[in-house]
Design a protein that fits this description.
The protein has 258 residues and is α/β, with parallel strands linked by helices. It contains 8 helices and 8 strands; from the N terminus they run H-E-E-E-H-E-H-E-H-E-H-H-E-H-E-H. The chain has helices at residues 2-30, 81-87, 110-124, 138-149, 164-171, 187-190, 211-220, 243-256; strands at 43-49, 52-59, 65-70, 91-96, 130-136, 155-158, 197-203, 225-231. The chain starts with a helix and ends with a helix.
Amino acid sequence: MKSLITFASLSVVVYLAIMVLLYLMQRSLLFYPVPARADIPRESITLKNKALSLHGWVLNKGQKKALIYFGGNSEDITDNIVQLEELFNNRSIYLINYRGYGKNLGKPTQQGLFSDAIAIFDQLSQQHSSISLMGRSLGSGVAVYLTSKRDIEQLFLLTPYDSIADVAQTHYPLIPVRYLVKDRFDSIVLAKKIKIPTLIVTAEFDQVVPVKHALRLRDHLTEATVTYQLIAGAEHNNVTSFPQYHEAIERFVDTTVR
């Protein structure tokens, strides 16, 4: 009996230790800043959010309409240059690294990324007649937030989620991580504020953001005109390489443009 009690006590200690460790390490598990690159053959730009400089690139400069791209948590956003230029050849496209990514200073947090998104939009909106947003994975939460705060033409969400807290709970089902998450990115809470054409694209075998989280978000976008596309056979990191992905975007643009 004594050994059983000792085992139970040890198990509780280990369980609590894991909870503490996850709480303390959560931002390093959520954000994976990519290093700076100097070999990008596109025009670089710098935008400001108060004293913070936000570096990135502009593609198809000089178009009336624009698209701002918000990438994944470990994504080198410049990997999308050629593809985005092909998909949105009649829009200026802005790829701006998150704070703490590339050569940007600061540390990424939900509050910081949301603040930067507002600042980026407010500066770029002075140069364009309309702006659309694309958010991939982590970036879908940034795009949803910005759409709830500003006038956006179209919203493209690639492998999005209901909330980071709920995704984390899926990955750690035996630990109440939902209540430990600081950067929650609660897109589902903002869903009813979205009232524009929205495309959601998911990957059938997504192990990072399981499809159920995107479907839950979709079902709460009750005020938006939602187009949903599941890419059969795709995974989280290769979904953009499927022709069905390109076709879904092209159809969406053709049928929803103002």
